[in-house]
Amino acid sequence: MGRNRSKPSWRDRLPGRRPEEHFHWRGKEVSRLENLTDAVFGFALTLLVVSTAVPRDVAGLMEVLRGFPAFAACFAILLLFWNEHYKFFRRYGLEDLYTRTLNYFILLLVLFSVYPLKFLFGAWLGGESRLTGLDELWLIYRIYGLGFAGIWTLYALLQGHALRRREQLRLSEVEVIYTRLQLTEFRLQVGVCFLSVGLTYVTTLPWLPGVIYALIGPLAAWNGMRHGRQVQAVLERRNEPALS
Fold this sequence. Notes:
- The chain has nine helices and no strands.
- It is mostly helical.
- The protein has a domain at 30-130.
- Helix 1 (32-50) packs parallel to helix 4 (97-125).
- The longest helix is centred in the middle third of the chain and has 31 residues, at 134-164.
- The chain is globular and about 65 Å long.
- 22% of the residues are buried.
């Protein structure tokens, strides 16, 4: 009977808590591993704040305001990493030793990246960071590129692990496509990071290794359309409504 049907909890009715239309969420409850991750990301965000001295005069306040774009960029990148982590654990709910080990390395690199990120964006967008020459700029580009490549590689390994466990997880055909989409996206991210690092050894244009990251947008759009067509073909074969 309809009245005996269990109703979703108030948490599940919140925006963003609802499962995806064509992807069953296997991670129902927040695990201890996710609690640890949330704590580490929260600590990383705190480091962004406490690394800024409290202004004592108007000049100091203006210096803090000039550094706000760099702070906002670092904040956005950390939330991007957190969101990918959240989506993975909601989709697959994996907590085996391999998953936990990769997660620990992700947290290590996230914590390590806080100060290099703030320094880099401070040099780009205005702030306290100062570079004295191209050699220092190349070094920052390399630290940024290799650090990000490391983090996206770990996320790619997580996605690859979920793909290998697709039978155990009982992933549908559409879910497998979405998993491959995410895996390809992370690989593209890694490729762009290494391209940026490589450019620091062959170019004399100081802006090029940074601007090359703009490739991520078109590559992500191409990747989404390519896999989106596969999803639509599967849904049409099932006579299900396709995603708009």
